[in-house]
Structure formats: C-alpha cells, structure tokens
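Researcher: Going back to the complex we discussed earlier. I've cleaned up the inputs and rechecked each line, so this should be the final set. Can you rerun the prediction on the complete assembly and write out the structure?
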Amino acid sequence: MWRTSGMRIVQAVPLLLFVSALTFFLQLFVPGDAARSIGGLNASPQAVAALRHRLHLDQPVWERYWAWLKDAVHGDLGQSISSNESVSGALNTRLGVTLSLVIATTLLALVVGVVLGMAGARGGRATRVTADIASIAGMTVPAFWVGLLGIWIFNTRWGLLPANGYVFFGTSPGGWLRSLLLPVAALAFALVTVIAKQTREQLADVLSRDFVRNLRANGVSERSILFKHALRHVSVTVLTVAGNNLIGLLGAAVVVEELFGLPGLGSAAVTAASSGDIPVIQGVAVYFTLIVVGLNLLLDLAVGRLNPQAVAA
Amino acid sequence: MTTTDATDTTDTTDATGRPLLDVRGLSVSYHRRGKGTPAIRDVSLDIRPGETVALVGESGSGKSTLGRAVLGLTPATRGTILFDGQDVTHAAGARRRELSKSVQAVFQDPNGSLNPALTVGQTLAEPLLVHSRDERSVVLERIREVLALVGLPGEAAGRYPRQFSGGQRQRIAIARALVMSPRLIVCDEPVSALDLSVQAQVLNLFTTLQRETGVSYLFISHDLAVVRHLAQRIVVLYRGDVVEKGTTEEVYADARHPYTRRLLAAAGIEGAPAPSAR
Amino acid sequence: MPDVSVLRRVLRRVLRRPRIAIPAVILLLELIASFGARWLAPYPPQQADFTAALAGPSAKHPLGTDRLGRDVLSRLMYGGADTFREIAIAVVITLVVAVPLGLVIGLRRGPLDAVLMRTADVVMSIPGIILLLIVLALFAQSMTAAMVVIGLLSVPGMMRVVRSATLTVGRETYVAAARVSGLGTWRVARRHVLPRITGLILVNAALACVGTLLIASGINAIGLGVKPPAPSWGGMMADASQTLNESVWPAIPTGGLIAVTAAALIVLGDGLRDMLAERWSGASAAAPARRRRASGPAVAAAAVPESDDAWLPAEPNPVVRLTGVTVTADTAAGAVDLISDVSLTVGQGRTVGLVGESGCGKSMTGLALLGLLPNGARVSLGTVEIDGVDVGSFDAVKWRALRGGTIAFVSQEPMVALDPLFTIGHLLREAVRTHEKLSRRQATLRARELLTQVQIPDPDRVLKLRPSQISGGMAQRVSIAVALAGRPRILVADEPTTALDVTVQREIVQLLRTIQRDTGMALLMISHDWDVIAEACDTALVMYAGQVVEAGPTDRVMTAPVHPYTRRLLAANPRLAAVGEPIPTIPGTVPPPGQWPVGCHFADRCPDRVDRCTQAPIALTRPGDDVVARCVLAGEELEVSS
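Model: Rerun complete. Updated structure for the full complex:
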C-alpha cells in the first residue's frame, strides 16, 4: 500500500511538470499574434501591446516556462494580470471553497449512492426500472441545469436556501453548510447515480460468485454475507469509481461554482479565461493537479485498507 | 535414450533420419515488473516425421509455454527451434506465415477455440485465404474434405460454432489445423476439457489422422493415461525443467524421476503393465 | 439489387427494436432541425420581441420565449448545428486515434504498450477543464480548438477500453489459432477482434458524445466559447438562470433538450451493442435449434414411475435421503427438468459417489440437497430428508440452522471458493462463530485446530494469509476446514479434486477419507473421475442425462457394470482401455435438459436398444442383490450372464 502511495506522490512531479508545460507550450499553436488572440477581437492595440508585455510574449516560450518554473518551486506562481495580486495568495483563499465542494460531494455521493444501490439491488422489477432510468438521468442531465432547478425550487419558490455566495466555515458553520447544500447536491446528482449503478452491478456480481454460495452452504447468515462480504467488495469498487470520477467532478465544480457564485478556484479560472489572465489559469492548473493527486492518494489508502491485493496488482 | 527403435510403425520417417522438429536448449522467460521468471529452462526435444511426442506436466510446468514458443506465439529467450532443419526460432512476418503451412495447432478449450461470429466454413477457409488465392470452389472442396476427415458432414460448414457440442467443436478445431495439410500439429491439452465418452472419440481421431496423413504431433497433456494411447515418446516437464525423457514403454515401465512416478500413480498406472481390455 | 434487400433487412431489424428505433428517430429529427434551421426555424435566432418576453409555450412560440422575447425553439435549432458539429469533432478525433492504438497494443503488447499505458495514466490525471479554459483563453474562445482538446483528452480512456477488450478477446484460443494460421496483427484485429468489440466501442463512443455535449454546454453556460447573442444550448441555460425570479420556463426546454439528446445517445449505444451481441451469444438462435421430442417436461415428469426406494443399497443410519427427486427450472422455453427421479441415501460414516459426465445433473442433485438450487429451479417432485426431517417446507432460517452444522459443502474451484478480501483466519473464525458462541481468541484456537485437522503445516502462518497467497491444493484444504467448522454430519463434496493438479488430487481424496474415519461424518462425493470414486466411495451412483442409471457397491459397479452406459463409459476411459488399439467410444453426445427422450435417456446412443427402450419412461429395478439399474434389459442380461 505504501509503495503505491509513494508511486502516486512520485508520479505527481512529472504530472505537474507536464500540466504546467502544456499551459505554456500550447501558446506555440496559437495562429498569428498570441496577444491579440488572448486579448480578443475588441481589444485596442494598446491593450494588446500591454498584454504582450505583461505575459512576456516577446520572449521565447521555453525561457518563460523556465522562469515560471524557478519561481513556482519557491511557491511563487506569478502575478495576476487584471488584479496584480500574487496568484498563489489569491488562490490560497479560494482553495478551501473548492475542496469543501469536492470532498463533500464525494462523501455524500458515496454514502447515498451505496445505500440507494443496495436498496435497488434488493428491490423488484419496478425498483430496477426506476434505478435504470435514474442512472441514465445521472449521466445525461447537466449539473448546471440541476443547480438551476435546485435554485428555482429551494430559493425562488420556497426561499429555504441561498442561491448565491459562500459563507466561510469560520464565520458561521451553519451558514457554510447552507451555502454548500445546493451546489453539492447539483454536483452529487450525477455521481450518486454512477455509484448507485456500480453498487448494484457489483452486488449482483459478488452475490453470484462461488464463495457466496459456499458461505451460504456452510451456514453463514445472509446479513453477514451482505454487510460484511458483499459490502467490502462494493466499497473497493465504489472508492475506485469515485477516484476515477474526480477529474470529471472538478470540471463540473467549475461550472457549479460559476452558477452559485462561489469564490472557488473554478470561478477564478473562468474569470481569468474570459479576460486572458493566463498566470491565474496556470496557477489553478497547479492547484487542480495537486487536488487530484491528493484526493486520489486518500482514496488509494482507503482501498488499500480494504483490499491489500488490489494495490499490489 | 531417445533413440530407441520402438517406433517401427513410423515408416514415414525421413530417409535422412533428420527430425522434423528439433528444439535445442530452449528457454522462455516471462517478464513481470522487470524480473524475468523462467517458464522453461534449457528444454530439448525432437520429433520425427509421423511421430507423436508427448509433453507431460502439471500446471506451471511450462508445457504450454513450450508449445506456444514452437508456434511463435511466445518469443524464446534462449536456444533454437529447428523445423525441417531450418532455424525458425525467431521467424516472423512472411517466414512465419510460410511456416504456418506446415505447423498448426489444436488448443484445449473447445468453446473458445472457434470465433462464435464466423461460420465453421469461414473459420476453416481462413488459413486458405492467407496462403493461396484459390478459387471459391477449390476452397469449398477442401473444407468438405477436412470435415469428412474429422467425421463431420459437409453441411457443418454453413453452421455456427454454438450449434455444435464440445466434442464436435474440437473436431472442427482439428479440421482447421488440417486444412493446410501440415506436417506438425501442436496439440495443447486437446481432450482435457472433454467428457470421458467424447475424449475417446477425439483421441481415436488423432490416431486415425496420423495413420492417414503421416502428420507428427507434439501432444501436450497433464494426463499420462491419455498420452499412452498416442505417444511414442514422452518428455516430462517439472517447473520448467525436463526431468524425464524416453520412449513410452520405458517411462511407464521404469520411470526414473520421482515426479514422473507420482504422475504415473496419479494416472492409476503404478509401474504395472497396462490392464487388458474389458 | 442485393444492396437494397440488405438495407431493407437491416432497417426492418432496427425498427423492430424500440430501444434503437426511438432514440435513432429522436436524434435524426434533431439533426434535421439543427442543420436545416435556416429553412425550418420559425424565426431568426436574434429576432427579439420585447412585448412577448419570457412567455410560455404558445402557438406562436411553441417553446416560449426568453428574456428578450426571442423564440426559444428557433434558438435551440440554430444552436444545435454547432453542438452536433462540436460533438463530431471531439468524438471522431478520439475514435480515430484511440481505436487503432488500443487494438495494436492489445494484440502486440511489448514496449509500445508499456509506453502508451504510462502516457495514458499521466494524461488521464490531467484536470481537463483547466486545459480547456487555457485553450479558450489562448485561441480567442474557439470552440473548435476546445473540442480538439476534449477529443485528445478522451483518447487514453477510450484506448484503455479498447485495449482491455482486445486483451480479453485476444486470450480466446481462436485468436491464437488464427495467428497460427498465419494471419498478421491487422488481419486478426479486423477479422476476429474488431467485430467482437464493436458494440463496446459504440457504447463508449455514445458516452464520449454525451461527455462532450455536457462539457460543451457547460463551457457555454459559464459564458465561454460561444459569445452571446449567438445561440448555444449552454448559453441559453445561462440566460435562463438570470431570470429565474420571473420565470423558470426558458430553463426547461434548454436543459431538457440536452438531457434528451444525451439519453437518446446512451440508449442508442446500448441498443446497438445488444443487437450486435445477439449475433453470437446465441440467446435468440438457441430456441429454434431445439430438436425433436422436447419431452413436455411436466408430462414427462408425471409419467416417470415412482421408483421404489427399497433398492437403495443398505445404508445404516441414513443422514440424508432423496426420494424420487425431480428438479424443474423455468426457462424461456418453459419448464424444463434438470434432474428426474433421483433417489439416494447416505448413511453415517459412509461415502456415496455420484459419477457422470458434465450436464448429467450431479451438481444439481448436490445443490437440491443443500437447498441452494439456482434461481428459477425448484424441487418439483419427491422429498429431501436430512436427519429424518423432510426439508421440503423449510424457510431460509431453518435452512441456515441446518447448513454448516448438519450438512456442509466443498466446491470445485478452491481459488474462487474463498472470499479473496479476507484472511484465512478471518474466514475460519467467521465459520466457527456461525456455529458456536466463542470469543475471538477461542475462535482463533478452533481455527488453528481445523487447519491442523486438514493437515496444513504451520497453521499460524496460514491464518494470516489471504486466499490468493496460497496454492490451489492448500485452498481446497482451507475450504474443507471451513466446511468442517460446524462439525457437519454430512459433507457434500462437488468435484473437490477436478481443478487441482493430478498429484494433489489424490492427497485431497485421502484427506477426506481420513477426516471421515476420524469423525464418522457421511460424505457425498460428486465426481466425473472414476479414480476418485474408486478410491473414496463405498457406493457409486452413475448418472446420465438427469437420472440415476445404475447404483451399487463401487467395486461391483466398476468391475461388473450392468447398464450399457456404465459399461461403455468405463470402456471409453483411456486409463482402462488397451493401448495400441482404438479406444472404445460411445457415439453421439449427452442430450441436454429439455431434449431428453421419453423413454430411456441413453437409448439414442445405445447399441443394445430394443423397442421397449423408447416407448415409456424406464424405472429403476433391482435385478440382483448389489445391482440397481434403469434398463429394461438389466434383469435379463443378469440372468444370461449368471
């Protein structure tokens, strides 16, 4: 288990290099004047010139990358073009928002997904059909739309939950929870159905395996088979699924942050992307990569505890 | 000790006495995580035209690995494989294609050995399509011939594998091996997945085909009782090493290696002469 | 014109499947509406009508209007063309790159495989959204550039799917056989692999389309990519979000359309996969292939004469007794008997062997005894008694009390018989504590004792191992230990040696004998292997096509078989047959359940057949002291030979 964890951490270095390099070298593919392309068609010649200067677009790209890398090693990810703030400083305050969102969503989806999946596996035909439809809905309904309808129901109609903004945990834990409920629900919708489906399939698979028949044949109770043996197999699968879905979850989180006006990394990246604030996006790339590596590491450790072989393989 | 003349039935033997297949000092290693684990070590054996040599061992003995190496499905790490005097150890591309006219295979699993999406005729035509541009009628004629050889009606060509029983599928697999009139067939546990009553049918078929076509077999099996009916000579593999080699009579009457004796005991043959027929 | 007829046949096949036809029609209509928007849309996309802003559906505006009074339907139609073009760019790139790569590395393996898989790992760890944002920023919000990136980012996932499916298909022996026939990698891929995995690729392509659709609309929803006022599905959702306080309406058709499109894609992918899979799964083809005289099961079952169980070889102190048991399964083709009129008794300390070829019903008999028949199968006739109690009416609770303690089970494949996620110690402790109230420490001691009983050296070490860390023979010993945990009175062993190496098989049989001697347990040994039966069993029952056809002391059955099937089966055994002459064979194959003849099940293959054999079900008779057989000739033959 420690070997794989070590591998994850070691692999994080080339991954970070690769992602950050991509953010620079993609500029090589921009046709024509990069500054004009970034600034947009409506930018004045002065603005474009300023942009070129600020982004050091007059220097060779590898030189820029090398300079960025040297600073990045010391924790300096450069300055935002639009606000002049330090990128790492600005993003540090936003990290908590995105982390809260992603972790809460994953935990909620795991619990709700497994419970629904196990209930679905034991139900009859009606349950099965419902579960099938729900799992297709989960794959097809945009998170933005789920959030939109959530806002309409819980805010516009019933006035129960805030539609916008974020309350820091330190300010008011209750407010923090309320501000996260709708975004988390919008994000979790898809993941819940994925996990419920996996739970259902894995459960059906495990319960049809030889060792389950042998457990039954030798008198072990159904309860023990279901909640000890089957649940452990399900957990391994489901944690792996959650890990595989992290990247997609981050993608959806960007959209959801924007919809609910949450001051997270995602909304920072969106603002930066529309204003050509390249250093900020590059910074978010680094943070996102670290989040993916870190959370996957945690999930690996959990899987490793449940199934030492899975990690060895 | 491998040169006993007990196989006087092999009137098809090459006049020069040159073996058809000559495996010399063959080693195969599988690489897992950088470590090379040898599957077989320094294995030598030879098969003369019209002869059957059995390769016997349990799971993990490397017997299938040797078969796959001869077929070019697994690369050899060391040693040479001579076929008809030519080095074919690393034959690839056009040479391997050429070789596949002469060396064919029958595998264990009668369910997996035929593509379920192709008709039996399509499967049987496959080697012909690779090797020649015969006309359709010629191909069809050849398919009918080989089906007849394995005791199946010509209509079988139009049907799908799922419409046949395990034993019949194994006959079809044998027919595919026969299409190119090969000189050597590598048989990897060809009867072990079959029921007893069907096993005998297929074993007899192997014997008959050899008599009629003079083909040689490398017969890979875990079961010394089965092997006795076909092989003139036996090679016993244990964890990748050859531990016993000799004519069938020698091995059954006077096995030297304790492992061979255990295998014989497991096959219900404890050095005793074969029981007479009931 | 053959082409037309083929087309028509395909079309008919497709239309008969609503799960393909419905989504296909939906997508087709959307495509027509989108790419023909210029001619078909009721309004230009930008035409605003402030007097009718945020209106619900009406005759004038079938899907209502947005906050500027623009027609929602028209805007959806105009936005659709971009959406579909975007999906096409991304998914085509993914497929064109990933499918050939996956096929090649799956078939060839080697260094290229290693390198590409490592690369795939890295690329799949990239947070794709951020790359998209950068590309949008750099490339003047070009959706095309973004789609190229999505397409490329999806390559590793698709490649892995194709590779692993290729590996699975590549392990099939027919692929090895094709290579031996001289086919090169490409030909093998095209001919043998690609057709098998097309369904899977279609499903994943559909998922890729859905993923692209959701990402693209998400990007537009957060105001990137397509710049308003140009219509885009995502942008329209964003528009709707700004006027939620006034009306939720504009949000409904936009998000709804995305969901419907995505769902149609997924259902279509699944439907196509299922249609392709049916070609070789044989699910639909098996039914018409049914041969003559499918014995109308219920009728046949009733027609079987109730055999007198007085024939049962004298078994003192019977632990289990099956009397005239018929097991019937409900299949698509109706009720089918899996075993018919099976009677057997196992006495305390005795070993009874059930011997026969695969599909003859041996295992089904064992499962009937354990109350573990597969779903849809039931004991339809006869009684099962365990310890003198008829278990026919037992519910799950009563069965559980019986299993493990009175009757226990050892199965064929030891490597899959134990839960791989738990240690041997855990599994044994669990088994022990199912039957006895013991502390953890006491249970561990008992577990050790059990491992010693099955002759495992160094039990303390083995307790800490997991099933994958021990050999097959050792795993079978552990399985036996688990079965012994409840000190059962009878053990049902279903092919306990078959999956093991030949030299290990004997040790397991001897172990079972030893345990039996020490504990006085009864043993029902199910095996196809005459050697195992000869070595272990006092009594042997020979089964053929669902019936017991012969029974008696093992010695007698093997040396003086009466039933023609037993005789021929023994003669066909390569172990017993003479070397140097053809091995005697039985022509034909065992008929599967549902295709049993009305009379003797072996009649079709029997050289001694007479007219009586095929007219009515044959009963078991007892022509001699040690002889029980289901054959009309049994008595006569005995008279002749004696």
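Model: Worth noting: DSSP finds nine helices and ten strands in chain B.
Researcher: Good, that matches what I expected from the previous run.
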